[in-house]
Write a structure and sequence with these properties.
Elements lengths: L2 H7 L6 E4 L3 E5 L9 E5 L12 H21 L4 E5 L10 E6 L16 H17 L1
Antiparallel strand pairs: 1-2, 2-3, 3-5, 4-5
This protein binds guanosine-5'-monophosphate.
């Protein structure tokens, strides 16, 4: 079982920002910016997004779209950027990153330190916006 499956099952804690039957979204533990979110399928552990079947692939992006709208409503930013890397965790995931500049999507830059209490508050704010959609 991957670490992200354990997170989706609640066996490992995470700052949840959205969930439905098939997909789960939570804050990245080492965010590029406040509100940096990971979106995953719950029941598919394949490590390459383009291996997903068409239904899961389309569902993942449709869910990510709603999560991005919630992030934009909850976190001050110009727009929400998207990245798919998968170089570290072998479980398909989409990064959603609130952007002020294009440099905010540079994974090599120094990551800001965000206190756990602030992460919890950001997650709660995004979840509240998601539930309005
Ligand atoms: P990638 O696989 O896309 O290259 O990077 C994996 C991402 O997952 C990184 O941004 C990393 O900070 C994040 N990550 C790795 N392990 C955990 C974890 O246990 N919890 C959370 N919330 N994020 C994680």
């Amino acid at each position: 079982m991957t670490i992200f499956t354990k997170i989706a099952k609640g066996e490992i804690p995470s700052w949840k920002v959205a969930e439905n039957d098939s997909f789960y979204a939570f804050l990245d533990i080492n965010p590029l910016a406040p509100g940096h979110t990971l979106v995953i399928p719950k029941n598919v552990e394949d490590d390459y997004i383009f291996h997903l079947d068409e239904e899961t692939y389309a569902g993942l992006w449709a869910f990510a779209r709603k999560v991005a709208l919630a992030i934009k409503a909850a976190v001050p930013c110009k727009r929400v950027g998207v990245a798919v890397l998968g170089m570290e965790v072998p479980h398909t995931h989409i990064h959603l990153v609130p952007l002020q500049t294009e440099g905010d999507l540079d994974f090599r830059k120094e990551h800001p330190v965000i206190a756990p209490e602030r992460q919890a508050a950001i997650a709660a704010a995004i979840l509240a916006e998601y539930e309005k959609l």
